[in-house]
Design goal:
eight-stranded antiparallel sheet
């Protein structure tokens, strides 16, 4: 006879109570720890990593088989669609005949048809239209634009380590700011602002370790202890690790605490060409929540209902964070940024 399976000794609800909660203005100041030179060094290290010319253009669920989808990356129009078998196709969004916007076309039996004169594209080269490499990782869609990136191309994008899609609840938020991609990445490489700028979501934030000087890629991480605010003094404490695996991506992984293994993956995609006087950048953020608790199966079943709330939570945070990124760009573009 085998021993019975040991019971999970964790509390039924993953909550803690803050007994000594102070006012917002009474929390420990973090401006001395948030050294401009260290944030700039982290940004430089991220920028030096190869991307293979891959850009995130949106959520996998957003590219459908019944209509084309248009995206712009660094001023380059892109059209995406799925064929009758669900396979993804991408390429120039300008019709090679007379320049119609292919995003306004229609998809019939997996073929994209231009509305102006009926030029039909099945995803293979035809009539001067050539496809671009595209990758669907199950959560996000990436397009490789060699003429934009200018790097050595790679077969696949740098997709960070994630929980398996079939064991996670996923949601994707997209926002746009007047800034450059580096301003978005710099925001994510500054976790010290969390409890000050987002007191409705984070409390008791402490950066446990930050890389100093030249460090190998595997050690280039910010480790943060923070509590997610639920209501009043009720919180969920976790330890999170921030990394930047490529120039336009920053991930936050829950290393300890409730939801260990969950990931928030932030991608910055330039919408306007390099050097534009008023640059615009898209923030595409994928939240992949997972848990080993038995009750998480219920959350998986309710995923379609949870996704709007998850996107709303991301949107609230990014209203503040895009203001941060936009302010940073305004100061940089006028030579007034003190963190240079």
């Amino acid at each position: 006879m085998t021993d019975p399976r040991p019971e999970d000794d964790r509390p039924r609800l993953p909550l803690s109570f803050r007994r000594h909660a102070g006012a917002w203005e009474e929390q420990r100041a973090t401006w001395r720890q948030a050294r401009a030179s260290e944030i700039a060094a982290g940004l430089e290290r991220a920028s030096s990593r190869p991307s293979g010319n891959w850009y995130v253009v949106g959520a996998s669920r957003g590219i459908r088989a019944d209509r084309p989808t248009g995206r712009t990356v660094a001023g380059t129009e892109t059209v995406l669609w799925r064929d009758a078998h669900g396979a993804l196709h991408a390429g120039p969004g300008v019709c090679p005949h007379l320049g119609a916007a292919l995003k306004d076309g229609v998809v019939r039996c997996g073929t994209l048809i231009c509305r102006w004169h009926g030029l039909a594209l099945d995803g293979s080269p035809f009539a001067g239209w050539d496809p671009w490499p595209v990758h669907d990782d199950g959560v996000l869609v990436w397009v490789r634009l060699d003429s934009v990136g200018g790097e050595e191309p790679t077969q696949r994008p740098v997709v960070p380590s994630r929980p398996p899609v079939d064991r996670a609840v996923t949601a994707v938020y997209t926002g746009v700011g007047i800034c450059e991609a580096e301003d978005v990445v710099a925001n994510r490489l500054d976790p010290w602002h969390g409890a000050w700028l987002h007191p409705y979501s984070f409390v008791d934030l402490e950066v446990l370790s930050a890389p100093v000087g030249g460090v190998p890629d595997e050690e280039d991480a910010l480790v943060v202890r923070v509590s997610f605010k639920v209501s009043g003094r009720v919180v969920v404490p976790v330890t999170a690790v921030f990394t930047a695996p490529e120039p336009r991506t920053v991930t936050m992984r829950i290393a300890e605490g409730e939801g260990a293994g969950s990931v928030v993956e932030t991608h910055a995609t330039p919408l306007t060409p390099v050097g534009t006087a008023r640059p615009r950048t898209a923030v595409v953020e994928a939240v992949m929540a997972t848990s080993d608790r038995p009750g998480f199966a219920v959350a998986k079943a309710l995923a379609p209902l949870l996704r709007p709330a998850m996107r709303s939570a991301s949107g609230r945070l990014w209203r503040d964070d895009l203001a941060y990124a936009e302010r940073r760009w305004q100061l940089r573009s006028t030579g007034r940024f003190p963190g240079s």
